[in-house]
Amino acid sequence: MTEIRKKGVSRRTVLASGLAGAGLLAMPAILRAQERSLKVGVYGGYFKDSFDKNIFPEFTKASGIAVESVAEPTGEAWLVQLEQAARAGQAPADLSMMSQVAMLKGQATDLWAPLDLSKMPNSANLLDRFVSKYPDGRVAGIGAVAWYITLVTNTQVYPEAPESWAALWDPANKDRLGLLALVSNSFLLEVTAKTFMGGTDALDTEEGQLKAFEKLAEVKPNVRLWYRDEAQFEQALKSGEIPMGQYYHDVTGLAAADGHPVRSTFPKEGGILDSGSWALSRASQKAEEAHVFIDYMSQPAIQALMSRKVGTAPTVKRELLDLTDEEFAAVASDIEPIIPRYDLYQTKSDWLNQKWTEMIAG
Amino acid sequence: MRREPPRRIADYAPLAFPAAMLVLFFVIPFSTMIAVSFFRRQQGGFYTPDFVLDNYGRFLSAFFGGVLGFSLMLAIMVAVICVAIAFPFTYLLTKSSRRVQIVWLVCLLSILSLSEVIIGFAWSTLFSRTAGITNLLVAVGLMAEPQALLPGFGAVLTAMTYQAMPYTILVLYPALVRLDPTLLEAARTLGASPLRGFFDIIVPALRNTIMATLIMVFVFALGSYLLPQILGRPQHWTLSVHITDQAIYQSNMPFAAAMAVFLVLISLALVGLTLLVGSRREVT
What we know:
The structure holds 2 protein chains of 2 kinds. In chain A, strands 1, 2, 3, 4, 5, 6, 7, 8, 9 and 10 form a 10-stranded mixed beta sheet that branches. Chain A folds into 2 domains: 35-146 and 274-331, D-Maltodextrin-Binding Protein, domain 2 (3-Layer(aba) Sandwich); 148-273 and 338-361, Periplasmic binding protein-like II (D-Maltodextrin-Binding Protein, domain 2, 3-Layer(aba) Sandwich). By secondary structure, chain A is α/β, with parallel strands linked by helices. The termini of chain A are far apart. Chain A is built from 15 helices and 10 strands. In chain A, helix 3 runs antiparallel to helix 12 (300-309) and helix 7 (188-196) packs across helix 8. Chain B has a single domain, classed as MetI-like (MetI-like fold, Orthogonal Bundle), CATH 1.10.3720.10. In chain B, strands 1-2 form a two-stranded antiparallel ribbon. The radius of gyration of chain B is 23 Å and the shape is globular. Chain B has helices at residues 16-36, 54-59, 62-95, 98-112, 116-126, 133-140, 153-178, 181-189, 194-205, 207-222, 226-231, 239-249, 253-283; strands spanning 40-41, 47-48. Chain B is built from 13 helices and 2 strands; from the N terminus they run H-E-E-H-H-H-H-H-H-H-H-H-H-H-H. Chain A binds chain B through residues 75-77, 79-80, 83, 104-105, 108-109, 181-182, 184, 224-226, 228, 232, 236, 239-241, 345-350, 353-354, 357-358, 360-362, and chain B through 41-46, 58, 63, 67, 124, 128-131, 148, 151, 229-230, 233-235, 237, 242, 245, 247-253.
């Protein structure tokens, strides 16, 4: 004790060196935090599991950027969370896979940070319709994957696959259908227009929209479940409780591959083609990593990998892909798809929503 | 120990913490909601601060009136059924041995640990055609073939009653345990049957408790939004379901806030009315 005092080491010095020592010990944690990482939102469930298993590890190997995947709820629920968080300067995920209606709504509030195509040379591989742009030309999102919503059936209840969306209207299917509960994710107005009114152009006018609603109302007695939550319908479809409905082609394929008695059919009017885009929250600090990620995901080889492993349709040009015709047919179809009228869900969303709610709940 | 009435400001100090919590977690969020309900909706976007009445205007329609009426009716039915079942049950429970009481209360408490999602999916399996309880009835020979009991009003009502039952029992339990047993003994000595004693002595003695329990279950059931969605058809969706739709799926916060404010006001008015009627009766 006296020794220490002689050397003039005060209690303060001991404390200070102790703090410095603790700081040194903590250094590895700080260094680790500086490693490059990216939080990526993808739809929870089968989808996220397949990405976690097959896609993200490959990307980390190739780029050295760690991916932390975030399970996001379908469509607009996630949009609201992202928007509220961005207002507070937070980003629950840097990049998110967003459906097209959500992309447009996010654009309305400048939620998406503009992307720089020159930093992503592979984006040139994409089909034009998969590059989302702000009205002033800034790039808001890059097509990640495309998917089809098709007519699905339980193979035990329906030994024969239905051929047309008109099966939804068939009185024989009373109380047997499961349909999506929202106007903006079921796209049933477009299905009605394509099946009975000669095409989605019929929805250009309010008169046409009302007519489609009227025709669609005839489906109501057949509908057992209007679902918001995919798990709700998927379970019932597998068990045969609700043996027919609209559902995602990719997930149905995965379920069928697992041995469940389900099938997905492209009706002769076409499946509904929707797509998810990678969009960067304006609150994100990881723009650099996000560009690397999107560029990686836009490679034809990765798009082909996703088609094989996740079951999604590619967003890059068909001729660049090494998918065999059979592999391509498993995720897509040559039948002209029904393209949703995204414009309507922006310009008339409240009116359509009100009419829709009154139709199904009235 | 006699409690002194507070004299100085410092004597109110213990109140500061709960008051601060109440402001932080109730007054501020609720005020924000009221403010948002007057904001202007940006179609296809979010909202901008403003003062408009459109959101309330949109709510005042026959459609939403019907939804509100249904939600209130459902909540009242759940409250009445819960109390009608739970009151005699809890009374009998308090008369049983300590051991039996503990087992029952532990079981009831464990129901509280289940989330609404689990309750919803469990009942949807129980009511299903492929795996539900009707299969048991078929096996016993009571039914010709299994049937689906959902979606439907009965399924919604059953699951909501199931969910609210433990709360009801736990609220009634303390009052029934403390009930003076001599009241009933006196009635029995004077020749009343057990049933008459129960309805003429015990029920009136606990009128206030029953009223409070009814109100609590009513408010609890009014907020339910998952069970009507999982187990009901669209016409059984409560106002809470529509609020969620607007807030989460349509990103229409102002309209969702307006509906929520309306729901709170209506339920407060109903609770107030009930209390008013109750106190009147007490006076006469």
